[in-house]
């Protein structure tokens, strides 16, 4: 028998909504349009910029593209103002600005800026992008670790420490064993060890997670610098001369114009990274592990009441996050530099943290954010070679500025996992 | 399945929350657990559900002794729980919430969401629920969320179902529906434990009643006993169910709220075009089921809401602007969540007594705190309001709920008031403190101060109000005299406008 | 008919000891002090320092060449190894002591005491910055932006000091004010963004560190800004004598008037936090921002004020660096990691002004001693970072220290609020 019948009160959803206009997107776009206008008129430059699309070793050679700086900047500036106006009109009608519109805006701005900054010179597009992927790699590993850790409810400010510990351990172990695999494993172990401390102090001893993270960074910097000066430097031939990863082009895929050299003529650690991104995304959103992980990060008490051990889940996932970030550390020593150096991560962990937030705690978006940051910093070095009028320091500032814009909500609403940063204490 | 608790004892430090409690629930029985706030009901159920481990005693299910080291074990044994504060993840869908903790997977470790959806639909149709498996919890009204909780428990084949204070968030109609669902579950042989402190509900649905007080079982009762008998069993002495209150002598109109609307952070119109007047020397009670805009209405009056339209005038002057402005206009305020909004737990009693008077003499001179004056003031108030504490330097987090509320009362009532707003002033308090707070509120009225009392407890509304405004979905359904029958109020709380609604407006 | 339970008079019986004692305020304060000592807060601090020094000693011993050499024949002559361990550790810590407090190898008290004045010189910016971080902690904010705030403060004070000649006391005063104001501004940005947009101050201050770094780095490479005229190095010119903190005890010692500023700042912060209405609002917001808002406190303004003051105090640390310690011109490393050290100082001092003062002196001693340890014993100064971060980790987790030393658990375990302000206790 069925006694209960659904009633009006129980089934009608929500209350009436007020139409609210959000002026942030048009204001943001407008500001950038004005910046473009000022940059391209006050700092007006003339000449032709060449975009080289192929490398010399490519099977398929694409022609170089020439862009007249004056024409490109004028047209783009007009279009940018158009997009800002469109956004304002949508805001007036209480409609959001779609993501694709913002993306088009950003892409156009970038093209115009590149032509302007490199006026009269040639920009090697594949080179620019290959460098960007390289600089992004540790950021992406760090950000994936950050996403996992924060999704399970532990703020991970210690990414910097995990990267540095990974870099140190992989350099030493790979030097001694002359084995890259052993180096990678050592990086993973080092990252996990840092995570153990983070997890133990924040979960077991309920110390504020941000504080543990900050202190851990200092600890790892102190420890690695101490050991570097005292042990590594005097014996660098034995302890700090690891082998380096060689490029491993993938047949066919590596021959695709532009994409090939950028994505598929990379080292094995980059390929590991591709796999890591895909696996983390799939596992986080499609599997039992991910469902439980997110539940713990959003509402630990609810997870507890359905029989999930909150603190155990947190402990092991924070450890996993450390393992992934540790791999990013290995990229420094085994992938790019070829030896360990004091404080060689130089704040990459914090940019990774920025990528986590800018990517809204989503592995794919965080990866894209890390790529953006890597691109900005590589753009800086490419432009300083071709002689850009923009001081390199301002290009280097870009990721940090963008992140402040992001957290200030000017780039859309940012929502952290609800229980992130909060210890779970049963009483 | 038969559930039996034998000699359950649970201690927290020196406090004995459960003292050798015995309880038997037969299959297909609705067993009510009745007790005051703080009597130990929730502790007992958390022991049963594996969230706490008992220090002594046994749990038997179908005559087998159980050992629960966590809720997972309890659920596996067939115990389900509908929590007072729903244990649902707001950003997950219904199906995801239902499957969480016992997920089925398909190839590659992929979650079997289709199976979970099917399960939600199947249980929904069995009980006549209308629940969309793909809806986000965040978007669902509380009544539906509670049904998701029930589905969650049933999806794990619960044989014993615990309802912890389930009616607090429901309209009278929804409460009736819930009772019907309980009876339906009972038909299928499910044992039900129903925890509540509302006597009327107990008498309506219970097969048997166990009353606990101060952590001990004090007796069993039958649903046929009167309210007075049940209440005295629960409280431990004869209880007078009315509040001593003389007739009101309303003076001139003091607070005038005119076409007030409030929009929340999700852009929902939570208070919709509300107008009313409060006179000097009267208590206007704002009744309604929780979540119908009362909280936001009060916050708007206090200046705590951002998106507000309409007028709020006190004695002819607008008090819209900032919280500071409102307080300085002489508005006293008891917030509904005292530990969250009313007190700073790590502050001392003295510091809390000056919490909203930090900006001017006599507490502050030349930007400097006057600690000597503050100490003297605090000692005086401790005596006047009978605040039981070691001293004025005690942190309020260490006080009992009743004493904490007295600190808030002492602070607010020792200012010169031109309006007093009390939101849920007795929520979670024991009987003695309830009495104290009610007396103080009536004294404030009798001093000629206009008073607004917001309460979701119909009993409190009826006991205190000179006039009653009932809110439903952001609007005032009607303003009626204080002696309006509760059947009429119940209908109004569900949004029906009675014929006499305008009589006291 | 009312169905609920209201009732005749009967006092509730839930609160155990009901009688107010004769002088409650006084006795509760005395009790508090007693409880702190017996209950172990002071004890924990001492033990944490001891434990951290012990770990440091182990690190020093095991990286020491003599120990390594002796351990090669450990099983034939274990005494040699133990002797070498003792020599390494005691040698290092004796150098640490002689470099930070009193040097016995120097003739006469005036020379012997010089290390102590060095300690106080190192402590000066640590105290100022530590106070800044403490003010933010007490307001429930986490200012990790010390580095950026110090850098912009150093830049502003430095610019006034070398580029705008003025007569002596005035020049110094204007330079100090400029620096403090710049630090306040840099901190205030984070406060303003938090107040207006809800942007998390941890993220914003981290990002502002890098923005400040690149800004100063740019200015130090720009003629007419901070770069020394005619130089190609990213370094400022020397400060004019009229803007330099006078030495406190004559030219023999480096200790300068900045230390007096640090003492004054300590006293002022004590008044601010404990006695002023502004500090009352800070603390109320820090402990419970919701209740503070309901009590009419303008929480948003409080965030801005607190970050202004916090940034200003940290700015004072930057000022002390350029006008007191490194007066010959500064580079972008002028912050010397003090911005991060300040967090550990504030934590060790439990965010109380007097505690911060002594914690600053302790860490100043570690720094001063660390350099002489490096010079005398070849122990890299980075060991100080290790010891410092371990101290904070141990202090943050009293149960860990108790477990290590097998101390009894005090009757009422009170967690240090500053260390875990956001712990979410369920039920």
UniProtKB/TrEMBL annotation, chain A:
Transmembrane segments: 27-45, 65-87, 99-119, 125-147, 154-174, 180-203, 210-228, 268-285, 315-332, 344-361, 368-388, 394-414
CDD domains reported in the protein's UniProt record: TM_PBP1_transp_TpRbsC_like
Keywords: Cell membrane, Membrane, Transmembrane, Transmembrane helix
Pfam families in the record: BPD_transp_2
InterPro entries: ABC_transp_permease
Superkingdom of origin organism: Bacteria
Membrane topology: Multi-pass membrane protein
GO cellular component, one term: plasma membrane
Location of this chain's protein in the cell: Cell membrane
Sample GO molecular function, one term: transmembrane transporter activity
Protein name: Nucleoside ABC transporter membrane protein
Organism whose genome encodes this protein: Salinibacterium xinjiangense
From TrEMBL, chain B:
Domain of life, source organism: Bacteria
Membrane topology: Peripheral membrane protein
Keywords attached to this entry: ATP-binding, Cell membrane, Membrane, Nucleotide-binding, Repeat, Translocase, Transport
Main location: membrane
SMART domains linked to this entry: AAA (SM00382)
Subcellular location(s) per record: Cell membrane
The protein, known as: Nucleoside ABC transporter ATP-binding protein
Source organism of this protein record: Salinibacterium xinjiangense
Automatic annotation (TrEMBL), chain C:
Regions crossing the membrane: 42-63, 122-141, 148-166, 172-193, 202-220, 255-273, 302-323, 329-348, 355-373, 385-405
Keywords, ordered alphabetically: Cell membrane, Membrane, Transmembrane, Transmembrane helix
Pfam families, per database record: BPD_transp_2 (PF02653)
Locations listed in the record: Cell membrane
Region ranges (Disordered): 1-28
ATP-binding keyword on record: no
GO cellular component: plasma membrane
Record membrane topology: Multi-pass membrane protein
GO MF, one example: transmembrane transporter activity
Bias (Pro residues): 1-10
Keyword Amino-acid biosynthesis: no
Main location (coarse class): membrane
Name of the featured protein: Nucleoside ABC transporter membrane protein
